Amino acid sequence: MTTLSPTWNERERKILAAVVASENDDTDAHTAARNAIELDDALFCRTIERLHEGGYIDAAISKDGADRFVGVHVRGSLPPALQEVGLWPSKDPYETLIGMLQEQIDSEKDDDRRSKLVRFRNGLAGAGNDVAVSILTAYIERQVGV
Predict the structure, then answer these.
(1) How many of the other CB atoms lie within 10 Å of CB of 57?
(2) What whole-number distance in Å separates Cα of residue 93 and Cα of residue 72?
(3) What is the pLDDT of residues 72-105, one digit of tens each?
(4) Between the CA of residue 139 and those of 15, 30, 42, 105, 123, what are the distances in Å?
(5) Angle (CA) 125 127 128, round 5°
(6) DSSP helix, strand, coil percent of the chain (3-state; round to 5)
(7) Rounded to whole angstroms, how far apart are CA atoms 129 and 88?
(8) What CA–CA distance (Å, rounded) separates 67 from 21?
(9) Is the four-CA dihedral 123, 10, 93, 48 of positive or negative sign?
(10) What is the pTM of this model?
């Protein structure tokens, strides 16, 4: 099972969503990434570099001889970003489910319901892919009377 960075949902995923949305709105991807969340320049550059190296975004990254950032420019998204934000199907239905739960958590206004969704998501993530699929299959079978 893939372990997410503790900043994934608060930082990287928000930047990805902004970049993908900018392409759908035909606006500048770099500006959208920069405005997605408040980050200082160094942290923004490191985040863009990680997303670029992870294959999520196309970006130009410049560094000096001491490996310090001179600048970054986000050009656009790559297919894994489209999968991550739900515009393209994921190859892994388990990851899709976790992503859908995260979207519900992010948009939920009721604190009690949000807390329950977080516990459910964390339980699924902790159980792993095979166990989660077995649990969900059994639940669905029970719901439809199989």
Answers:
(1) 27
(2) 33
(3) 999 999 988 887 877 776 667 777 777 778 888 9
(4) 34, 43, 46, 21, 15
(5) 70
(6) 65, 10, 25
(7) 20
(8) 31
(9) negative
(10) 0.60
